[in-house]
Write a structure and sequence with these properties.
Blueprint (H helix, E strand, L loop, with lengths): L7 E8 L2 E8 L13 E8 L14 H19 L2 E8 L2 E8 L4 H4 L16 E6 L4 H7 L3 H18 L8 E9 L2 H13 L3 E2 L17 E9 L5 H13 L5 E7 L9
Antiparallel strand pairs: 1-2, 2-4, 3-5, 3-6, 4-5, 7-9, 7-10, 8-9
Helix pairs in contact: 4-6
Length: 263
């Protein structure tokens, strides 16, 4: 079991022109790699009810969740495994765990460690050396955009809990940082062409509690809704502008709208 409080969330991506659903422990990122757990254990399970897009059929969710709980619970208890997440793609669910070297031999006894899988599932097991946790860092962990979609979903859920009218337009504030003034100015010009209002540039300053500078800060704003996929859409638009200029997005915020203005 992980020696930290795990924080699982999901994001979507494309692998070889097919959608893939990633569930990953975000809290593992600042801990990785963990020297005590250099072995990567993967467990690949073919799904019984294959959808055309390769993702899970709703009728199979409970069975797959039970299988996952059975395997992860047993491996955490018996070989001190750390579960870092799973990928659903092309009709398969693949779970990934990191295990101490001392338990390498025990992994040869799979599936005795976990008990037999429920029918009709026939898992395939693989063990690989991955002391740098390259699979987690380079494949499982979300990239900047996927990470932001997770934060978008979490932030919108807070608005929902407060009774926000999500489809009401309101000013949405954004922040980004750039390595040079010139790149920040170029980004500001492009953002204005996309309907954003921009503030005065903020000169670099050290991040609180560190010696690192965040670069030139740029705040910008535009009226938007935050319903449905809209946050992911405007973030994708912003990333398309700032990423080629080495910009780092620092998130968005907005005022709470509880009653429609036309009510």
């Amino acid at each position: 079991m992980a020696p930290w409080e795990q924080d699982f969330d999901f994001y979507m991506a494309m692998i070889e022109d097919l959608p893939a659903s990633f569930v990953v422990d975000l809290a593992a990122a600042p801990q990785a790699p963990l020297a005590s757990h250099p072995l990567l254990l993967s467990i690949r399970v073919e799904m019984a009810m294959k959808r055309e897009d390769g993702l899970r059929d709703g009728r199979e969710l409970d069975a797959l969740a039970a299988l996952e709980d059975q395997f992860v619970d047993a491996l955490e208890e018996k070989v001190d495994a750390i579960y870092v997440g799973r990928v659903v793609h092309d009709g398969y669910t693949t779970m990934f765990l990191y295990v101490p070297e001392a338990h390498r031999a025990a992994l040869e006894a799979l599936p005795d460690l976990t008990g037999a899988p429920p029918e009709p599932y026939l898992p395939k097991w693989a063990v690989a050396d991955d002391p740098a946790w390259e699979h987690y860092i380079g494949f499982m962990a979300p990239d900047d955009y996927a990470q932001q979609t997770i934060w978008n979903r979490r932030l919108v859920s807070i608005f929902e809990e407060k009774g926000d009218v999500l489809d009401a337009s309101r000013e949405v504030d954004h922040m980004a940082y750039f390595p040079t003034r010139e790149k920040a100015e170029e980004a500001a010009e492009m953002l204005r062409a996309h309907g954003f209002a921009t503030d005065e540039l903020e000169p670099p300053e050290k991040q609180k509690g560190t010696e690192e500078e965040r670069g030139w800060g740029l705040q910008f704003h535009r009226d938007d809704t935050i319903a449905g996929e809209r946050p992911d859409e405007f973030v994708a638009e912003i990333f398309g502008i700032i990423k080629p200029l080495d910009g780092a997005y620092d998130g968005w915020g907005a005022t709470h709208v509880k009653v429609r203005s036309d009510a």
